Amino acid sequence: MLQNHIGEFAALLTAFFWTITALAFEYASNKVGSLIVNFLRLLLAFIFLSFYSWISRGHILPTDATSSAWLWLSLSGLIGFVIGDLFLFESYTIIGSRISMLIMTLVPPITAIFSWFILDETMSLLSIFGMIITVGGILIVIVSRKNGGKKIFISHSLKGLLYAFIGSVGQSFGLIFSKVGMGSYNAFAATQIRIVTGIIGFFIIITLLGKWKNVNRAFFNKDAMKRITLGSFFGPFLGVSFSLLAIQHALAGVASTIMAIVPILIIPPAILIMKQKVSTKEIIGAVISVIGVAIFFI
User: Fold this and answer.
1) Is there a contact between 65 and 170 (Cβ–Cβ < 8 Å)?
2) How many secondary structure helices (H) and strands (E) does the chain include?
3) From CA 275, how far away is CA 268, in angstroms rounded?
4) Could you say which of 59, 71, 158, 242 has the lowest number of CB atoms within 10 Å?
């Protein structure tokens, strides 16, 4: 049973891993700041991936990559990790990881739209319909009415929603450039290249902003470091590993749909652990948004 559906089980585990990651990084970002969390989690993820690459490939560093791979994967790291994740993690501190992950269901449709222009990939009418359903589910959550339904307003911070949207666009471009640069190259080594670029990018930002004292303080914040380590292990390391395993052993559409259920999985721990109030409307919106992702991959 398990062997016949190893890809689907791997995708389900990936969704659980990313749920843990989102909650861990939300907590840590509120404690020491999203910029510092981003930098430290990439350092830890690089250590995890380097050890894994040494065991699996015999290479601690991706020294066997071509110059073309380094170029495109470096761009992917700068856009996806530095720009995209910086805004995403900041949105955690404003609207929380639960709503941010809901906005991130836009990644598949955004990626498809830009892939249409950049990579000449086609989209079916059903895919477009799936995009509309996904957006509709998000709107159900973030739009409310008052004064007897006469006035419509955004029920969550517009700044937080915008940051999460920028995060989804950054991740989409990161995926596209990764696809261009990776080719047949080892995916874990490709992730190492992206992380190296991300570390350099955050190093420059922290230096320009004079935030190294904040980094030092974060090291001595035991609660934050526990969450950063937890998130780094389950996110950039295990999350990437099991998502690749899922795509290897299951149809990409099926795997992607299962991995997109994070906005639903994150609701129970958000209520029980984070003590957040979740309305029926928000649960319905999250389910509809994920259904839209599922339709997108049919």
Assistant:
1) no
2) 15, 2
3) 10
4) 158
Q: How many CB atoms lie within 10 A of CB 139?
A: 13
- Which CA distances in Å does 42 have to 1, 49, 103, 201, 235? 36, 10, 23, 11, 10
- The residue among 36, 11, 12 whose CA lies nearest residue 227 is 36
Burial class (CB in 10 A: 0-12, 13-18, 19+), 283: middle
Taking residues 69-98, what's their average pLDDT?
A: 93
**What tokens were used for 45?**
């993820």
Q: How far, in Å, CA of 75 to CA of 82, rounded? A: 10
The secondary element (H helix, E strand) that includes residue 100 is: helix 85-103
Structure tokens at 199: 């570390």
Query: How far apart (Å, rounded) are the C-alpha atoms in residues 133 and 292?
Result: 5
The pLDDT value recorded for residue 250 is 75
Alpha carbon 244 to its chain's center? 14
> Do residues 118 and 172 touch, judged by C-beta distance below 8 A?
no
CB 23 within 8 A of CB 263: no
The C-alpha atoms of residue 163 and residue 176 are separated, in whole angstroms, by: 20
Q: What is the sign of the dihedral through the CA atoms of 102, 104, 106 and 108?
A: negative
pLDDT digits (tens, 9 = 90+) for 197-238: 999 999 999 999 999 999 999 999 999 999 999 999 998 888
Q: What is the pLDDT of residue 22?
A: 93
- Of 152, 136, 146, 158, whose CA–CA distance to 284 is shortest? 136
Both tokens assigned to 294: 């599922």
- Asked whether 7 and 246 are in contact (CB, 8 A), the reply is yes
Q: How far apart are CA 107 and CA 260, in angstroms?
A: 10
